[in-house]
Design brief:
There is one protein chain. The protein is an alpha/beta fold. The chain contains 14 helices and twelve strands. It has helices at residues 15-23, 49-58, 87-92, 121-151, 155-173, 188-192, 218-230, 239-245, 250-259, 266-278, 303-310, 312-316, 326-332, 335-341, and strands spanning 3-8, 40-45, 62-64, 67-72, 99-106, 202-208, 233-237, 280-287, 291-298, 318-325, 345-347, 357-363. A hairpin with a 3-residue loop joins strand 8 (280-287) and strand 9 (291-298). The two termini are 24 Å apart.
């Protein structure tokens, strides 16, 4: 699977600046609301030194990293759920993403107007979450009306969905999130079909001044307080700095980040947080000398399911998986050496893929 993250926030919080820094896509950036009208989309390869090391051993014709897709969406304003600003045009654009990254303004720039008179990150987070809850409430109530009508003649058929919708309505009506409503066994497949925005995992991105990168400040602590209550991870980033560094030679940019005490770039931080958020793991395949490739799957994925991510024929004809941790392969120096040492394990269809596995699938079609 490819991780897809929707970047959301109020106008002029640095969403498009961050998007450009992450993707080098050159989206328009300006200090007025709704610079982003149609969503900007960028697909970024995920750098992974493990993939590079495996490729250096195999020397394949092609090296294919896994990717992450970013969607930068128009600034949200209070009342969007009722059509204010870009209203539902904004909200409809994030129904298909895997997770939502909420950019919160924690930088002071008098020349860039904010949606409110004063900077108040906690209040900004409340506005965005309330608008997402309200648009979900509209979705649930529309569906609830249809289900109630249909259930009059087929009560048993719609019993589970009606029960789920009523619980969702109660939570969303008070500004809660759909993720607070765990589906029961007979409701699991129903919830996924609604595309509810508040059912998606969230990540807060505190967009700070460069001076606040190391220790933060009062504005950042407001975001962290709200995140702690909501159980959400916070990533602290200076989007403007990252956008500037994108034009620097890679070694100079890395050295400057090191001076600031930053171990990772904004892209690396967001990707790591996204993987943790969605419980993703990466495994690798090496198809002879043709291709070395990285794949992303959800933690707990079986070898049989992972084979299906590569090709349906591989899953249908699955025989076994030959598995070696990437570190053992690199230490041995080759697949031949790994086999000679007996480090290559033979696993069946129920084997659970682990982070960093190098897997060769045996199959017959």
């Amino acid at each position: 699977m490819r991780l897809e993250i929707g970047i959301v926030g109020l106008p002029n919080v640095g969403k498009s600046t961050l998007f450009n820094a992450l993707t080098l896509a050159g989206a328009e950036v300006a200090s007025y609301p709704f610079t982003t009208i149609e969503p900007n989309v960028g697909v970024v390869p995920v750098a992974d030194e493990r993939l590079e090391k495996i490729a250096s051993l195999v020397k394949p014709e092609k090296v294919t990293p896994t990717t992450i897709r970013f969607v930068d969406i128009a600034g949200l304003v209070k009342g969007a759920s009722y059509g204010e600003g870009l209203g539902n045009q904004f909200l409809g654009n994030i129904r298909n993403v895997d997770a939502v990254a909420m950019v919160v303004r924690c930088f002071r720039a008098p020349d860039i107007p904010h949606a409110t008179e004063d900077l108040d990150p906690g209040a900004d987070i409340e506005v965005i979450n309330l608008e997402l809850a309200l648009v979900d409430l509209g979705t649930v109530e529309n569906r609830l009306e249809k289900v109630r009508t249909a259930s009059k003649g087929r009560a048993k058929e719609y019993e589970a969905e009606l029960r789920l919708l009523q619980r969702l309505q109660e939570v969303l009506s008070r500004g809660g999130r759909a993720e607070e409503v765990p589906p029961q066994a007979d409701e699991a497949g129903i919830l996924a079909g609604y595309g509810l925005l508040t059912a998606k995992p969230q990540l807060y991105i505190a967009n700070v001044d460069e001076e606040a990168l190391s220790d933060g400040d009062g504005l950042v602590r407001e975001v962290e307080k709200a995140a702690s209550i909501a159980g959400v991870e916070v990533v602290r980033i200076c989007a403007q700095l990252e956008a500037d560094l994108a034009d620097w030679p890679a070694d100079e940019a890395e050295a400057y980040r090191a001076e600031l005490g930053l171990e990772k770039s904004a892209l690396e931080q967001v990707i790591s947080a996204g993987y943790r958020l969605l419980n993703l793991v990466t495994f690798f395949t090496a198809t002879g000398r043709r291709e070395v490739r990285a794949w992303t799957v959800v933690e707990g994925t079986s070898a049989w399911e992972a084979a299906g991510k590569i090709h349906t024929d591989m899953q249908k004809g699955f025989i076994r998986a030959e598995v070696v941790p990437n570190a053992e392969l690199v230490a041995a120096g080759s697949f031949v050496a790994v086999r000679e040492k007996g480090s290559m394990r033979l696993e069946g269809r129920d084997y659970v893929i682990e982070e960093g596995d190098v897997v060769h699938f045996r199959f017959n079609v």
